[in-house]
Model the fold of this input.
Amino acid sequence: MPTAIAWDSPVQYLKGVGPVRAQALSRLGIVTVADLLRHYPRTHLDRSRVTPIRDLRSGAEATVLGRVLTSGERRSRQGRTVQTVAVADAGGTLFCQWFGQPYLLRQLRPGLEILLGGRAQIYNHRMQMVHPDYELLEDGGATLHTGRLVPIYPLTTGVGQHWLRRLVHETLTAVRDRLEETLPAAVLTAHGLTGLREALCGIHFPQDGADLEAARARLVYEEIFLIQLAMACRRRDFGERPGLRLGPPGELTARLVAQLPFKLTRAQRRVAAEILRDLRSGRVMHRLLQGDVGSGKTLVALLGALFVIEQRHQALLMAPTEVLAHQHGEVCRRLCEPLGVSTATLTGSTPAKERREILRAAGAGEIDLLVGTHALVQDGVDLPALGLAIVDEQHRFGVRQRGRAGRTGDEIAPHVLVMSATPIPRSLALTLYGDLDLSILDEMPSGRRPVATGTVAAADLDACYAGIRDRLRAGERAFVIYPVIEETSGQDLRSAEAEYERLAAGPFRDHRVGLLHGRMKSRDKQAVMAAFAAGELDVLVATSVVEVGIDVPQATAMVIHHPERFGLAQLHQLRGRIGRADLASRCDLVLDRWLAPDAAERLEVFCSTQDGFRLAEEDLRRRGPGDVLGVRQHGAPVFLLANPLRDLAVVALAAADAAGLLSVDPRLEGPGLGPLREVLAAGFGRYLALTAAG
Ligand code: ADP
Ligand code: MG
Done:
């Protein structure tokens, strides 16, 4: 039976699995044998070295073996449950704490033998571990589970640690001799990497620490190499596609620049030149424009659009939200119409009649620049002379839709410019967007003043609002941000709807207050945003819908309630809504409760810098690239072991290796590259190849 296992065999047919367990495994993303073998341990407990509890040192990682003494539960002041389990060995007692995991009490019953791994910490004179890794020992546990580096896997209901460990072990034993090497031999030798077979055994059941490290190094390299190779292939394919070739620029862009009330930054001029060079190269442009919030990306995009428009082509600008599409539409209309360039805005809420007319005009080539939400592209807008498609705030789309705009045209593909305000470090950009050329706006328009950012105790909120009233009287505007739309029972969070009423009747009763949140009708959102931008509202009470791209230069103050509820990137985007002109701005974070150390640290970082690259790096370090960039949901490369931030050097190596390989063997036809080709074709998640059975 084992010889019949292929890498894409469903795990359901493995011995001891069956339909119910298979269902449970699928919740971990494990469907095939390859998925199972790529379900890497979260960590390993070092059971070859157990520390007696009385020898634990505060701050140090350790593994402890003992028996559960007592277990119990209490409620924290924030209403969460806290599970505390006391574990004792011959010489001492260790207190373990978990938050919000009541089911643990059923598992960790007094008297059971337990193995714990984590960081010991003295707290209230007691030795503690918070959220340690743990495992209950079965009587007479086999050598698979003790006396060695033992893998600890991510689990789900219906999948136990021991059972899964045994399943991985048996499956690995059954297939290991038929695992085919995926990496080119030359690459393995050049970097001294272990083969796939040893690496898979080593990542699950390492002999020792060195074995584990070697396995990890190989698998990390492999993940990054495969992505680099796929990117390099795409890039090569792009490069082979002929693109619309533009002639020398006329005077349209110069006229646009002349009518601006400010001078372009050096970075804006440089990037515009990079775009122009692409547009004139005869090859299709695929360029990513990165720039921190407020760096002036819109204008650069508009310059690109005018380059193609003045040569009688059309341009398309897509935004992630309707609010943003209307804002872009308005800016484009204001700047373009004096130049004789026709623009139109199309979103999901454009009335049917108007929509038909816009589609007709666009199809007849009467509209030069069409602005809209990405829904617009999916609904098959026909732009016969499309020369440039611009996608704003790309991270909102996820990676998959990225290629889409490029597919509208027929023989000659339009140029594509993608803009992102998630300032990711170059190494990561290379990894995720290695198929795109990269331009960076690394300079803010002059005259911008830093946004003073600090925390306010809830008790000092009156003074904070008084300060804002002074600003309003001077003609400035303010945002007040809440994490939720309405109050829900069991959560003591202030909400946008309830506080809107209170603020409008209380602290801001002499001012015009508006409300904006995600559940409002698009048309209403639109109206509120427009009123705030036009100065018909002084204060905007909102949820994080204002997060992306909104540009109101007179907005100079922001108060964020429950800031611990927002991620770093989100906070940065929110704060980016103020300080967009040369007025002094301030952002206040309202604190009304005890914060977990991790949240407190995050807010501290946020207060200390306004550098988007710094914050993004911090965010990536904390949450991992998949979550930050929203790629996980979109089926883009998922990193199992690699972390492009940490593995910078590997990214560079692998990129060079991939390019080198393609330059000598563009179709990967060399001897031994069959498995590699197969893996590339199959996608990233399951890159394993086994020789045919029998
Ligand atoms: P983002 O890069 O976040 O999309 P925007 O393109 O919305 O930023 O620009 C932010 C604000 O800065 C806008 O009001 C825009 O008019 C203004 N702006 C753009 N370029 C400059 C410049 N060179 N000097 C001064 N202000 C500028
Ligand atoms: Mg923008």
The two ends are 11 Å apart (CA to CA).
